[in-house]
């Protein structure tokens, strides 16, 4: 091991599999030996990692159809991270000092194979922006829902990591009216004042369907849904002829204490889908391999011109990472939740 590198580092592990939603007692920040990279590996000092909702499903164990493994008691958590290469063997395509993205967050240092690292090439002006989940919103709004000039677009969960990007993207793609939903009056105000939403449906302030009818009296053309549940039901009722619905999440079930994170039943009016000619499709990035590069190019350009922003909360220190996950589940933050090391 290089003498300038520590011999141990901290990481967050699942201490116990919860019954219901995970809480602080289900995690532990532990100190573990720091291995030296071998052939085909580099050591990365993580700078930032994102707290993503999918961890709830991986912890709950309902992982059927997912490309990521279930998390068991004692396992270190993982997820998207960006950092700096601090050790690389001879012959590696990566060099000390290179900035990279990878999937081994939730630890101070990560031992990563060359093929699991993506070098950051400066397409985005701020390295933390590489942790934005905007590619899912962009892909859904260009490949499935195909926003057209003048469309009325509804984004559910508009103050979340994906939703806070989706409304901005819809507007940049030509939407004429953008409506969001949230459960917080404070977040509703920020959606309008900071992200340019035209109206907000406030969950808990009367029937969602009634509020949506007022916000979009002529109906909606596009839905970008991250929630499901009552909000998806209401969106079907508000659908105009030929409306396009793209589902990118199902937080109503995923974050339910009564479920294990991998199901979200909902009742919708299938007759209205038929007579209105509504398309309803789920978005998976794996089905659209060209989206990520296209998104990064457009995202970088929009960031530099100030046409878009990456809303996120930065939580300092790995010791606070379990709390950051709990707060994300509780919906306390606006936009993505990023831990800064």
UniProtKB/TrEMBL annotation:
InterPro entries documented for this protein: ADH-like_C, ADH_N_2, ER, GroES-like_sf, NAD(P)-bd_dom_sf, Zn-ADH-like_protein
Enoyl reductase (ER) domain residues: 20-339
Residue ranges of coiled coil: none
Name by which UniProt lists this protein: NADP-dependent oxidoreductase
